[in-house]
Amino acid sequence: MKGNALTEREGHGRSLILAIETSCDETSAAVVENGTIVRSNVVSSQIDVHERFGGVVPEIASRKHVETITRIMEQAVEQSGYQMKELDAIAVTQGPGLVGALLVGIVAAKTLALALDIPLIGTHHIAGHIYANRLQQELSYPAMALVVSGGHTELVLMRSEGSFEVIGRTRDDAVGEAYDKVARALKLPYPGGPHIDRLAAEAEEVVPLPRAWLEADSYDFSFSGLKSAVLAAINQARMKGQPLDERSLARGFQESVIDVLVTKALRAVKRHEAKELLLCGGVAANRGLREALSASCEAEGIRLHIPPHALCTDNAAMIGAAAYLKLERGLYSDLNMKADPGLSLEKWSVE
Question: Do 341 and 252 belong to one domain?
Answer without folding.
Answer: no
